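Take a look at the protein record below and tell me what you see:
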Amino acid sequence: MWAYNETFYQIYPIGFCGAPVHNDGVTEHRILKIGEWAEYLGDLGIGSIILNPIFESDNHGYDTRDFRKIDCRLGTNEDFKEVCEKLHDNNVKIMLDGVFNHVGRGFWAFKDVQEKKWDSPYKDWFHISFDGNSAYNDGFWYEGWEGHFELVKLNLQNPAVVDYLLDCVKMWIEEFGIDGLRLDVAYCLDHNFMRRLRSFCEELKPGFALIGEVLFGDYNLIVNDEMLHSCTNYECYKGIFSSFNCMNMFEIAHSLNRQFGPEQWCIYRGKHLMTFVDNHDVTRIASILTNKNHLPLAYGLLFGMPGIPCIYYGSEWGEEGVKAPDNDYALRPCFEEPKPNELTDFIKELIEVRRNSDALCNGSYRNVVITNHQLIFERRTDNERVLVAINAGDSEFTAGNGELQGNFTELLANADEIENITLNGQLTMPAYSVQFLKAV
């Protein structure tokens, strides 16, 4: 699976392109802006973008009106074809947000039910009871997503619904060449639907990637050979920032070992989960870290640990943004152009080093040294061994362990500064440092 060796870049297009929050019905060609960033993304080393909803919707994108049409606030289908061509020309693949659990009240089939009630041929596309009423006084009750009745839950056990959604996916693959789907609220989706989607997409486009949004629970239930290739690793998302803010590296070390460690009881060994330090739903990492010196270290950890790293647009230069109690607008800004800085350069280096390292992309995980302020762990495959060493403290630290033996190359050094290091049971870790040491 190509996705396992790549870094993803997530964009929330309605915010990124400066579109109105509510659908105003006016067609503006804003989505072309994503194409204007294609060269920047290719230069950064991004393997694929993840675009949050781009289909015609009522408001924020997750309330879909039409799965076959680009939202008028973003432009036209022809505009998006141009964007896809530019991205692919820069070796950036495209993953779209598949919002298949629910639709908006403006969805064409639901509007037909509103008009015709029980005479609508689409009444079984949803979970409806004509013995009740809705908060919108529709004359019938329907199930919404987690109590949000502007999001109408689809009946994924209805073969007609599944056929319709797969036909839409087919269109986006065949006409636009998309390379994967992010499945919104994958923890809610019918398992048989995900199995059907996996086999359908694999037959249509071998290597088509499916990554699910999962907030909790056992990831093995949906990340397996029959359903999804990966899902979001929220457990380690919390562990990353919390370990730095609490100066307690034991937390992330425990989570990583629990998931990927060498013991037989470790639960996700061999899995490639999607890892991140922020996204469109959570406060940005630059706003959540209490010590700004930890910002590059958080990314060093992200690219050293098991998983598929995903960067949220703007965070690669340290953009801040705090989630509000009642909306996410501050998390989804519009930038006129990229604003790269030293952090961006460091992330670019991390992307390149990881892409060229079998151990960092696919290797096993094992803790070597853990203190409150320092963490050293090993990533290993049959042909490569890399030590990832992080010092979150404000002073130099010398780690001691019998496994710190042998000759190593520092992968994160600049090309003209590559250091060969010999370890004899100790490793000196500068203050606020990240080291990727490859055994030679």
